[in-house]
Every structure is written in structure tokens, then in C-alpha cells.
From TrEMBL:
It comes from the Bacteria. Residues 24-277 form the EAL domain. This is EAL domain-containing protein. The chain holds residues 479 to 765 of 765 of the full protein.
Length: 287
């Protein structure tokens, strides 16, 4: 403890930090095992097109079926993966799972684009675009079967690198979404010269939009901005019918949130999709 606190350039460790470090190291070790033993799985959350009620795509969200701790959510292990050098492997594992699922859905005649999240650290992966393109080709999937959700941070940390990666992917037909739009850097310049298909309004604006005029103004003006750039706007964090109605009035294109469906396993999502299409289109509306 005393030895640690004398290390140059590091803060003084408290015993609490020590146990925290131990927990992180343990999680990192277990995550390595998890990757080798396929303990990661995906849940899928539908994105609902507001004007028609159809489901153009689903977002894949990683979960970890931990042998003793049960089902873990990204908040419990993504940071550890990111800082522990495992993000590359995790991203590849998630892409494999998502694209394998896309093949199954395609064989069932379902036309849903599967969206995968990329951490901003994936930007450092020189092979990323090539690997994605190879994974698609290996499965005979068109690029349009896949959407990648990147953050503003991803786009701005190294703009030229991001641009090269995205242009390569776009050329292969892969779609690109900007996730958590409005929470990152304030520059909007990237919207000018990056190949983006979709803006996802962050849930921190969407959830309070009925009670908070400023949140509401940000949602409305982001929709307007996106539309004037020819982008599709997705609202995430839609938790109530009232928010959904207001988004439809604001001309938002797509909604995603607990009110429509939580992220669920693939088989459950298939039942959810089938139950929706069983309802006559006119009755289906958006709820
Ligand atoms: P995100 O990409 O912005 O995903 C949305 C998060 O909000 C998900 O949490 C989702 O379950 C949750 N959510 C969806 N609808 C609602 C709602 O109506 N209300 C509220 N309060 N929350 C809602 P989750 O699955 O815990 O994922 C958290 C974050 O972890 C994601 O945020 C994404 O940044 C990251 N993540 C998830 N899967 C992956 C992955 O495979 N790779 C990477 N790099 N990051 C991932
Ligand atoms: Mg996302
Ligand atoms: Mg998001
Ligand atoms: Mg978010």
C-alpha cells in the first residue's frame, strides 16, 4: 500500500481502490475465458418505423452469461474490456453473433437490418473495415444487412481515420448510425462529409421531453437538422405512449425503447415481430 502510493504520477491508492482493482482484474480474466468459451450473447431491440409501424431493423446489445454472476449487462464489463485490451475481440465476437443471426433471419424471409455498436476504441483497429466486409462475404450477406452504430467520439477523435473506415464500409453497403447523438463533442462538421444514414437521439433528451422544454426543443430541432441533411432520425429511450405520440407529431422517423420492446433474445424477438404482423396494418399503428 505504501509502495503503491509512492509510484510517480499515480494517485494514492486507498484500500477501496485495491479491492476495486482486484475486481476489475478478475472480471478481465473471466472475460477472456468468456470470449474463448462463447459466454457472450446478444439481445435484440426493435427499431419501429413510426409512419408505417414496420420494423426496418434491430439493435444487437451484448450480454454476458456469467457462470456464477448470472446475466451481466454492458455496464458491468464494457469498460473493463475497453481498458483491458479486449474490445477488439469483443467486437469481433459480437459481429459474428449478429451476422450469424442475420443469416438465420434472412433465411426466414425477414428483412431486418442488424445494428452493432462500435466502441470509439475500435477506431484504432486498422483491420476493422476489412474484417467486417469479409464476415459479410463469408456469409453471403449484403452490406445492407448490417448497420454500425458509432458515437460522435468515434467520428471526431481521428476524423480522417473514421472517414476512411466509414467510406470503405459504405462502399460495401454497410449502413452507419451516429449513436447517442447530442451528448458528444459539439462539432457538427462531421455531418457534412461523413457517410451517415441515421442519427440516434440520445435517451437523455427523449425520456424527459414532455416535461422539459429544452429537451423537447433539442429533440425537435435535431429531427429538423437531420431531415434537412437527408438522414433518418431514431429516438432511443421511448418509454411511454405519450412520448411516442409526441415524436410522431415531431415527424421523427423511427422509435426504439421499452414502450415498444425491451432488448430480448432472438427467439423472443421473432415472436414479437410475428405478433405485430398478425395485426391488420391499419390497426397496428405504432403501439
Ligand atoms: P446504446 O447503444 O445507446 O444502447 C441503448 C441502451 O439503452 C441499451 O442499454 C438499452 O437496453 C437501453 N434502452 C433501450 N430502450 C430504453 C428505454 O426505453 N429506456 C431506458 N432507460 N433505456 C433503454 P444496454 O444494453 O445496457 O447497453 C448500454 C450501452 O452499452 C449501449 O448504449 C452501447 O453503448 C453499449 N453496448 C451494448 N452492446 C455493445 C456491443 O456489442 N459493443 C459495444 N462496443 N458496445 C455495446
Ligand atoms: Mg446503440
Ligand atoms: Mg444510444
Ligand atoms: Mg445511449
Amino acid at each position: 500500500y505504501a509502495a503503491k502510493s509512492s509510484r510517480v504520477g499515480q494517485h494514492v491508492y486507498s484500500p477501496g481502490d485495491d479491492s476495486n482493482d482486484k475486481a476489475r482484474l478478475r472480471t478481465l480474466h473471466e472475460l477472456r475465458v468468456a470470449l474463448a468459451e462463447n459466454q457472450l450473447l446478444l439481445h435484440y431491440q426493435p427499431k419501429v418505423h413510426l409512419p408505417t409501424g414496420t420494423v426496418p431493423g434491430v439493435e444487437a446489445l451484448v450480454r454476458w452469461n456469467h457462470p456464477t454472476r448470472g446475466l451481466l449487462y454492458p455496464a458491468a464489463f464494457l469498460d473493463v474490456a475497453d481498458n483491458g485490451g479486449l474490445m477488439r475481440a469483443l467486437t469481433r465476437a459480437v459481429l459474428e453473433l449478429a451476422l450469424d443471426q442475420a443469416v438465420l433471419w434472412q433465411a426466414q424471409g425477414r428483412t431486418v437490418t442488424v445494428a452493432v455498436n462500435l466502441s470509439s476504441r475500435s477506431l484504432a483497429d486498422y483491420q476493422l473495415a476489412g474484417i467486417v466486409i469479409t464476415m459479410l462475404a463469408d456469409r453471403g450477406l449484403p452490406g445492407s444487412a448490417l448497420m454500425l452504430e458509432v458515437t460522435e467520439e468515434f467520428l471526431l477523435v481521428d476524423h480522417d481515420r473514421a472517414r476512411n473506415i466509414l467510406l470503405r464500409l459504405r462502399k460495401a453497403g454497410v449502413m452507419i448510425a451516429v449513436d447517442d447523438f447530442g451528448t458528444g463533442y459539439s462539432s457538427l462538421a462531421y455531418l457534412r462529409d461523413l457517410p451517415i444514414d441515421e442519427l440516434k437521439l440520445d435517451q437523455s433528451f427523449v425520456i424527459p421531453m414532455l416535461d422539459d422544454e429544452r429537451a423537447s426543443a433539442l429533440v425537435a430541432s435535431s429531427i429538423h437538422l437531420g431531415h434537412s441533411l437527408g438522414l433518418r432520425i431514431v429516438a432511443e429511450g421511448v418509454e411511454t405512449a405519450e412520448v411516442l405520440d409526441q415524436l410522431a407529431r415531431f415527424d421523427c422517423d423511427v422509435a426504439q425503447g421499452y414502450h415498444l420492446s425491451r432488448p430480448i433474445p432472438a427467439a423472443e424477438l421473432e415472436r414479437w415481430l410475428d405478433a405485430r404482423t398478425a395485426v391488420p396494418a391499419g390497426m397496428r399503428a405504432i403501439r
